[in-house]
């Protein structure tokens, strides 16, 4: 692929911040390893929670077998370069020598042009849980353990891969996406449908792809890599138990397609809009659940499901978020629950599509205090409920407001076009259409040219709501300097509102970036 291909662009701010931060966090030992060798290495922590990828057959039944996974990997040349490890004294350099491996170098082929030009080795260390878990046995405590391990090792690695069973992988990916706050490094979940020790395993490609992405690309999201695609973690659902293409992201295209060429959709990557230090929120509320409507469901069933200690439910409704509007007994139970503080999110039972208010049957739920869930998957909505309810310092009103927000790219934000507003993303679309910008790079050019101007206008008038909206829509970080000195603080002549807000959002220094 040509050097100028937009699929392979990494913003200078993203790549430089990773490289400098990662170098400072390296733990050096007194061995004859050159600095240049370390410069050409990316470190990835692989957290092995269990799942099919590491299982073995015992009496014709798949079961977990501890302390064998590293041995299987060392037998696979595509996942470990023993000659390089010995030549560079890799095992003497790393503290966890017995569980540290290194990927082979990427050959200078056109299909791997970007990886080859980076000339970087991915060194990865395995952290194996004891006991290993079948994902069916995963609980919120296990999610918290994974999040804490990521936090504990965050400064020592460039990226993280979590090996996980496929049955509840979408739930864990969604939960981690909310638990990881101010994330700046990739966290990628993967696994397999067939154990990696078997001849026809998909685990080798899945693990290799996850490691290459975590080591080479600055994608500060929780993702799920499966069958040559990296999905946003809170957008996926398992759709097939018997095929290698087990996961689907019904309402958002993949972030990466790893086919003959590795194509990254950089414009879709979700980036933090603050400069706060990475942290994890592990206080998840367990009093949440999923309730699926079906024809003939009784009010007694709904009443029983909504009884204390239940604090939040995801209501899976028909079509575009519809429920029976000729059943006052059902609506009365939902209204009674929301009145006493139970948070209810409306999600569609359909695999694709979104909740809308086009039908009277959908508006009936809105009048009962039910929160529209947009195009969230049930897995993401449940994790979001648990996360928001876990912030017990917030009032019910504040929790409802947060549930309406797009926190981690888990839902598609719909902006009203009823009137012109600087906050209306459709304004940029109209400009792009007017000048005939159709290709991705042209649309990015329109955005990069106009968003700073809109931000400057908002900063000058102290319109913080517009600045927040531009941040949410376009992943902007408002800072002081920038190309040709263009930045909100300079254009806005230091508006007191802007200056106060910029400090709280982590925008107090550096350069303009979008």
UniProtKB/TrEMBL annotation:
Pfam families in the record: Asparaginase, Asparaginase_C
Native source species: Eptatretus burgeri (Inshore hagfish)
Hydrolase is among the record's keywords: yes
InterPro entries linked to this entry: AsnA_fam, Asp/glu_Ase-like_sf, Asparaginase/glutaminase-like, Asparaginase/glutaminase_AS1, Asparaginase/glutaminase_AS2, Asparaginase_C, L-asparaginase_C, L-asparaginase_I
Keywords carried by this UniProt record: ANK repeat, Hydrolase, Repeat
Active site positions: 52, 166
Enzymatic class: hydrolase
Keyword Repeat: yes
Residue spans of biased composition, Low complexity class: 7-22
Region (Disordered): 1-22
Annotated ranges, domain L-asparaginase N-terminal: 43-267
Highest taxon listed in the record's lineage: Eukaryota
Protein name per UniProt: asparaginase
Family per record: In the N-terminal section; belongs to the asparaginase 1 family.
GO molecular function: asparaginase activity
Domain Asparaginase/glutaminase C-terminal: 287-402
EC number: 3.5.1.1
Gene Ontology terms: biological process: asparagine metabolic process
């Amino acid at each position: 692929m040509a050097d100028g291909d937009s699929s392979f662009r990494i913003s200078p701010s993203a790549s430089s911040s990773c490289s400098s931060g990662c170098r400072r966090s390296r733990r050096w030992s007194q061995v004859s390893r050159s600095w240049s060798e370390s410069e050409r290495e990316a470190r990835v922590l692989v957290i092995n929670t269990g799942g099919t990828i590491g299982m073995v057959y015992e009496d014709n039944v798949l079961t977990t077998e501890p302390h064998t996974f590293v041995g299987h990997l060392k037998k696979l040349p595509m996942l470990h370069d023993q000659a390089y490890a010995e030549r560079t004294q890799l095992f003497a350099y790393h503290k966890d020598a017995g569980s540290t491996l290194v990927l082979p170098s990427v050959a200078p082929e056109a299909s791997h042009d970007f990886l080859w030009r980076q000339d970087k080795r991915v060194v990865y260390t395995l952290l194996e849980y004891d006991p290993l878990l079948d994902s069916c046995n995963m609980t919120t405590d296990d999610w918290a353990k994974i999040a804490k391990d990521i936090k504990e090792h965050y400064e020592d690695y460039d990226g993280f891969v979590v090996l996980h069973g496929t049955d509840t992988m979408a739930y864990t990916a969604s939960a981690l996406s909310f638990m990881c706050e101010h994330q700046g490094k990739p966290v990628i979940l993967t696994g397999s449908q067939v154990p990696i020790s078997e001849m026809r395993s998909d685990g080798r490609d899945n693990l290799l792809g996850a490691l290459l992405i975590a080591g080479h690309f600055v994608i500060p999201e929780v993702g799920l890599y499966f069958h040559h695609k990296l999905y946003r973690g809170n957008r996926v659902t398992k759709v097939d138990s018997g095929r290698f293409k087990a996961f689907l992201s019904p309402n958002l295209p993949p972030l990466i397609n790893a086919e003959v060429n590795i194509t990254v959709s950089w414009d879709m990557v979700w980036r933090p809009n603050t400069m706060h230090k990475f942290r994890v929120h592990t206080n998840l509320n367990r009093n949440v659940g999923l309730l699926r409507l079906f024809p003939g469901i009784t009010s007694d069933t709904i009443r029983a499901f909504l009884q204390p200690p239940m604090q939040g439910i995801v209501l899976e409704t028909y079509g575009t978020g519809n429920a029976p509007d000729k059943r006052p007994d059902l609506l009365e139970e939902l209204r009674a629950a929301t009145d006493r503080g139970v948070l209810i999110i409306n999600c569609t039972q359909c695999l694709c599509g979104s909740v809308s208010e086009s039908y009277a049957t959908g508006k009936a739920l809105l009048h009962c205090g039910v929160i529209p869930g947009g195009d969230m998957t049930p897995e993401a909505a449940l994790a979001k409920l648990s996360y928001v309810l876990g912030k017990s310092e917030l009032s019910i009103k504040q929790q409802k407001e947060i549930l309406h927000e797009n926190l981690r790219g888990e839902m598609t934000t719909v902006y009203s076009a009823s009137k012109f507003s600087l906050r209306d993303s459709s304004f940029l679309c109209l400009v792009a259409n007017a000048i005939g910008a159709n290709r991705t790079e042209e649309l990015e050019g329109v955005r990069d040219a106009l968003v700073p101007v809109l931000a400057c206008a908002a900063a000058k008038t102290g319109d913080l709501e517009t600045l927040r909206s531009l941040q949410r829509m376009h992943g902007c970080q408002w800072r002081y300097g920038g190309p040709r000195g263009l930045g909100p603080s300079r254009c806005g002549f230091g508006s007191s509102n802007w200056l106060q807000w910029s400090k709280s959002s982590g925008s107090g220094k550096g350069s303009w970036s979008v």
